[in-house]
What we know:
Layout (H helix, E strand, L loop, with lengths): L2 H8 L5 E2 L5 H11 L3 E5 L5 E6 H11 L25 H11 L3 E6 L2 E7 H24 L1
Parallel strand pairs: 1-2
Antiparallel strand pairs: 2-3, 4-5
Helix pairs in contact: 4-5
Amino acid sequence: MLVSQILKQKxxxxxxxxxxxxxxxxxxxxxxxxxxxxxxxxxxxxxxGIVSERDIVRVVAEWGARGLESPVADCxxxxxxxxxxxESVDSLLGRMTDRRIRHLPVCSAGxxxxxxxxGDLVKSKIAETVAEAEGLxxxxxx
Length: 142
């Protein structure tokens, strides 16, 4: 399965934050939207980072409560690893495992078109395996 197929199923909505948003505001949005990460966009809508629950925990552990008042730019991951719509699930699962990351923004022609999580990829892999098993069962019993 390809990333583009996953985005067709789950949709292309991407929750975003600005680098100047407070960490507390980002944490509140993550909780309210029930997501684990948001892409950080600058004023030109260019991806400048990604902020995850892990980033927020790290800033609070290092700075205490005052870390919540700091801007997202102080704790976001700047070295963003991207996916492309035509990449395979297997390719991304390997990349995410190797890099120990759980979210990949998806870009096409330099434009943000979606985001996939490790959960999205595992879900699609399970569905693919179940369909394959059902097909084999049908073939054997025919």
